[in-house]
Write a structure and sequence with these properties.
Layout lengths: L3 E6 L7 H17 L4 E6 L1 H4 L7 H18 L7 E4 L4 H10 L5 H6 L1 H9 L8 H4 L1 H11 L4 E3 L5 H18 L8 E3 L32 H9 L20 H9 L4 H5 L6 H10 L4 H27 L2 H29 L8 H17 L1
Parallel strand pairs: 1-2, 2-3, 4-5
Helix pairs in contact: 3-14, 4-8, 4-15, 8-9, 10-14, 11-14
């Protein structure tokens, strides 16, 4: 069996640069590395409905936004299978079988689920679909026999839940059917959770502290210039703090070789820029202007690719349709193996049919 990746995003809005440094950029690198035989990237619309069930249009309209962000970031449909979760009915069936392999108490102990229940104020009225979405996620991963799942640190409890389900299935129904996945975290620790432009712990669409991949140069500039820095760094000559300073966090995440030579040649590297800021004598505006250039260097080609695909939305849907059809074929094969292992493949089990036919024939012959 080859090396397989499965990952994806919920289509609840456009993707931002937090998604990009946390997962999207890494997916493109993995896609182009040649180390993986199959890469499946899922638009998780069914999962998004667990907490948007009363607003399906929000999910429906954002499927194309996420697809455009995928393609503009550099995901190549010739190398990567892009598909829509709800269109693979095998995922729903596999989720149903997995429900018997995990308890409600275990789901309630999942740290990611607990945190999101509190965040969404679901304590008093918790949708069953939301509570059980770790089971659905386990089905997403295992239906395609993914052995590698690129995730952020906050998703590790979800992956562990999937591993537990695989082990339970193997213990009951036999080894060799499902693959136990492993996590792949970003190399750059800064990329694990990029803060919002306001310095908050995480970018959030609802708070409005995001820089989107589809933002115009003007929007990027405005957001960076209003970005949270060091509140005590009032005058240029004041010493400044790097820790918790969003501008420097973004520079850590987006710096590439050649940026200083191109945009700020008076400094050799980021360490030298940080040292000057800590010492005093370096203003926030100058650092922010440098960050704008660094971000534009990354975002300009993404913006250009997005404009190309926006001119032919039917082509984007064709890409999603082809990826979904391929994913369904792979899923059908895995589900058949699962049902065989569970001994619920009645119509395909010729031995079962022949044995029972003989058994009942003997009954009537003896009579």
């Amino acid at each position: 069996m080859g090396k397989v990746i499965l990952t994806g995003d919920r289509p609840t809005g456009r993707l931002h640069i937090g998604h990009y440094v946390g997962s999207l950029r890494n997916r493109v690198e993995l896609q182009n590395s040649g180390k993986f035989d199959e890469i499946f990237i899922m638009i998780a619309d069914a999962q998004a409905l667990t907490d948007n069930y009363d607003n399906p249009d929000k999910v429906r309209e954002n499927i194309i936004e996420v697809a455009l962000d995928y393609l503009s970031a550099g995901l190549d449909p010739a190398k990567t299978h892009l598909f829509i979760q709800s269109q693979i009915s095998e995922l729903t069936e596999l989720t149903f079988y997995y429900m018997n392999l995990v308890t409600v108490a275990r789901l309630q102990r999942n740290p990611t689920v607990k945190a999101e229940i509190a965040q969404k104020n679901f304590e008093m009225s918790l949708p069953a679909g939301f509570l059980t979405y770790p089971v659905s996620q386990a089905a997403d991963i295992t239906l395609f026999k993914a052995d590698t799942v690129p995730v952020g640190e906050d998703q590790l409890p979800m992956l562990e839940q999937a591993r537990e389900i695989v082990r339970s299935f193997s213990n009951i129904y036999g080894e060799g059917v499902l693959v136990e996945p492993t996590a792949l975290l970003p190399d750059n620790k800064t990329c694990l959770r990029l803060p919002g432009t306001d310095g908050k712990a995480k970018m959030s669409k609802s708070i409005g502290n995001c820089i989107y991949l589809s933002d115009s140069p003007k929007e990027v500039k405005e957001k960076v210039m209003s970005m949270y820095t060091d509140p005590d760094h009032i005058r240029v000559e004041d010493p400044g703090k790097i820790e918790g300073n969003t501008v420097f966090t973004y520079l850590d995440a987006f710096m590439k070789p050649g940026m200083f030579e191109k945009y700020l040649p008076e400094y050799k590297n980021l360490d030298e820029l940080k040292a000057h800021y800590r010492k005093g004598g370096l203003g926030d505006v100058k650092v922010k202007k440098f960050l704008i250039n660094v971000l534009e260097d990354e975002l300009a080609p993404i913006r250009e690719r997005r404009a190309y695909y926006e001119k032919d939305i039917r082509k984007v849907y064709d890409i999603l349709r082809e990826g979904t059809e391929y994913a369904r074929k792979v899923g059908q094969k895995t589900l058949s193996e699962v049902k065989t292992a569970m001994r619920i493949n009645y119509f395909d089990d010729e031995e079962l049919i022949a044995r029972q036919a003989e058994q009942f024939l003997k009954k009537h012959t003896n009579n």
